[in-house]
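User: Could you check the structure of this?
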Amino acid sequence: MKSMTGYGKATVTRGDRELTIELKSVNHRFLDISTKIPRAFVSCEDVIRNGLAKGLARGHVDVFLNYSLVGESDKTVNVDLALAKQYVEAAHNLSVAFPELHHDFNINALMRASDVIIIEQAQDDADILREMVAEVIEMAVNNLNEMRETEGNALRENLLDKINRVEQLLMRVKEYAPRVAEDYREKLRSRISEALGDVQLDEAKLANEICFFADKSCIDEEITRLFSHIAHAREILSSNEPVGRKLDFLVQEFNRETNTICSKSSYLELTEVALEMKNEIEKIREQVQNLE
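Assistant: Sure, the predicted structure tokens are below.
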């Protein structure tokens, strides 16, 4: 199981070429890739995206690429001699036209003249660059996944602890559930007695009212489904496949059943336990958002 948060870095060299890729990922509903690469590597972007898609299922991933030559420079300096000659001739014409002005046009001034000196980036073999990118992206993804898996395993333990806590609270809900109707019986009997005084209670009508209330407030199905969801959550957490979306959906079901329990409950102790259970489920939901 993996988290969606992590960092991975890898470097490959081919002769004098050195290529480094850094990956930084955070949580996202889908696989969302943002590349920050030199212009010369725009044609390799498909290699980067394909490499990420092979190793990652979800998450926002920032890709940083750095390329350099560790030996001789990959840049060349050229001189536009024709343009330089025109600058020299222009300087000479100006000195003739304005003899009273000091003439200090020299080589340094000529080199600073616009477009006389041209610095060009050497063109690399595109096939070699694509091979290097494919190799380094695979290594970087592996390193990223190692970190994501370490954090994912820690999240698994944390989630299992919280699910255990939800199960403990659900056991208390199950214990309180039968008391709801009995509590209602006593309260109803007390209110009717206060209102009627010494008048004899109609036990049959009272029993019917209590049965109607018990049926309306019954939470046995919700309890059963929650126990089933807990078992399913543990099963999902034992998987090595991406589990984030499955758990996200399952947590919604946890919330649905717990909300129903809260809405049906008129028994204070049961309501308090159900609300505590909702709090634990919300913590689970927040953690699940970080899972791939």
